[in-house]
Each structure stands twice: as structure tokens, then as C-alpha cells.
TrEMBL record:
Signal peptide: none annotated. The keyword Metal-binding does not apply. Gene3D superfamilies: 3.40.50.2020. Belongs to the purine/pyrimidine phosphoribosyltransferase family. This is Adenine phosphoribosyltransferase. Catalyzes a salvage reaction resulting in the formation of AMP, that is energically less costly than de novo synthesis. It comes from Dactylosporangium sucinum. GO terms for cellular component: cytoplasm. The gene is apt. It catalyses: AMP + diphosphate = 5-phospho-alpha-D-ribose 1-diphosphate + adenine. It is found in: Cytoplasm.
Length: 174
């Protein structure tokens, strides 16, 4: 089965969550299925190339699931990009709008070596607010974004346009 079909078969649509009018794409069935989760992680690594990055960054919370698996499978480290107030040392931060609200993300100011190649991964690309903020934070903290992968892209929310021509890999675009 194609990876896009596999992902499609493991995503549940939940209407009106977390707010009326939002169609929430729930990826928990994909995460809970061992072979399907492994196939998704392997597909992200294959499309990016394991030798194209030095470290993996993932956004709290669902991005951590993918990022940790990609990091472990490739023998790289993981840098968590966290919601405000969670990191103990000096941070760089960005506030942004997402499909159903607003959030602030932070990363430690010394999280990356100068010029380190950083693969950014998340579960969903919706409006692109989270992704745009994260890519900027990685660069503010001294890293170089080598690629950005998501499991699922919601193209009707135009997240790609917000990323101003940066390449995005999605296992499934709907
Ligand atoms: O493209 P955007 O409109 O920014 O939306 C995408 C983001 O929204 C979700 O995270 P959320 O902030 O809901 O947090 P969670 O992972 O903690 O559930 C998702 O995991 C992405 O990070
Ligand atoms: N519709 C949606 N479903 C799941 N995660 C999301 N993150 C932002 N919008 C989302």
C-alpha cells in the first residue's frame, strides 16, 4: 500500500473539535498501530535522507512523537520546541496564530551548534503558523533548517504559502 493510503486509513475526522467549525484530524490511530507508525517514520527518513540532517526538532506535543522516532531510528538527537514557560534556561520565542487559537513556542537559545543541520518534523501542517514560527526559531537559535516534514498537510488552509517557498514534505496532502 502507498504510504499516503496507509496514512489516510489511519486518520479519523472529528467534527467540531476543539471548537465548533473545526474538522480535527486525529492521528492517534496511526501512532497506535506499530507497523503503520514505523512505515510513516521510515517514509519521512527516506524522503529527507538520513545523511541530510544532524539533529531533529519537533513541536510540542504531537510533533514530539514523530521527532523522537525519527531521531532514534537515525541515531540523531532531538531538540524539543516547547510551548511557553516549559524550558528552564534562556530561550528564543515566537507567538503565532494557529487554526484554532494562538500559542507561543520556545527553544533554548543554545539548542543548536552554529550551522547545524536541523530536520523539523510535525504531525499536521494546517495554517502553517506553528511551522513558520518553528523554522524561524531554529534559525534564531543558530541552526540551519535542512528540511521540514509532516505526516498530514491540510492544503485548504494554505500552510505552504505561509512558508514562503521553503520545501515541505507531506506523507499525505488532503
Ligand atoms: O499549521 P497550524 O495551524 O499552526 O497547526 C498545526 C499545529 O497544530 C497542532 O498542534 P497544537 O498546537 O494543537 O498542539 P498539540 O500538538 O499540543 O496538540 C499540530 O500538532 C501542529 O503543531
Ligand atoms: N484540523 C486540525 N486537525 C488536527 N490538528 C490540527 N492542527 C491544526 N489544525 C488541525
Amino acid at each position: 500500500m502507498e504510504i499516503s493510503e496507509l496514512v489516510a486509513s489511519k486518520v479519523l475526522d472529528v467534527p467540531d473539535f476543539p471548537k465548533p467549525g473545526i474538522l480535527f484530524k486525529d492521528l492517534m490511530p496511526l501512532f497506535a498501530d506499530g507497523p503503520a507508525f514505523a512505515a510513516a517514520v521510515d517514509a519521512i527518513i527516506a524522503e529527507q535522507g538520513a545523511d541530510t540532517f544532524d539533529v531533529v526538532a519537533g513541536m510540542e506535543a504531537r510533533g514530539f512523537v514523530i521527532a523522537a522516532a525519527v531521531a532514534y531510528a537515525t541515531g540523531k538527537g532531538i531538540v524539543p520546541v516547547r510551548k511557553a514557560g516549559k524550558l528552564p534556561r534562556q530561550t528564543v520565542s515566537a507567538t503565532y496564530a494557529l487554526e484554532y487559537g494562538e500559542a507561543t513556542l520556545e527553544v533554548h537559545a543554545d539548542a543548536f551548534l552554529a550551522g547545524e543541520r536541523v530536520l523539523v518534523v510535525d504531525d499536521v501542517l494546517a495554517t502553517g503558523g506553528t511551522a513558520a514560527a518553528t523554522l524561524n526559531l531554529v534559525e534564531q537559535a543558530g541552526g540551519r533548517v535542512s528540511g521540514f516534514s509532516v505526516v498530514l498537510e491540510l492544503s485548504f488552509l494554505a500552510g505552504r504559502e505561509r512558508l514562503e517557498g521553503r520545501p515541505v514534505h507531506a506523507l499525505l496532502t488532503v
